[in-house]
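Appendix B. One record, verbatim.
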Amino acid sequence: MTRTLTTLREEMRSVANGERSPSPRPAAPLLAALSSEALELLKVVLRERPTSMTALVGLTGRAQSNISRSLQRLAGHGLVRLVRVGREVRPEPIVRSLVVDLATGTYEARGVATAPA
C-alpha cells in the first residue's frame, strides 16, 4: 500500500490528537537490532534505571562506545529515549514489551515503561 504525503500528514495529526493509534512498524529492522547483547542492555536499563551512560558502563562492563551505539539503534526503534543531562546522556526506557504480528511483519510497542517498585 502506497501512502501519499497527504494521507501520512492526516494520520500523524490524528495520532497526535489521540484520535487513533499509530500504524504498526515493520518488524524486520527491529528484529535485526534485537541481538542478545541489545536485549541484555534493555533489561539492565529497565531494571536498574541508570542515571548516565557512565553508570550503565559500570553495570554492564561493556565499552561506552558499544553501549552508545546499541542505545542509539534502540532509540531509533522507539524502545529507549536518550536524555542529555549536562555532559552526560541518560537512557530512559519507553516501552516494556512488544507485540510482533508475524502475518503482517509488523510490531507495536505495548506497556509504557514505568519506574520499578
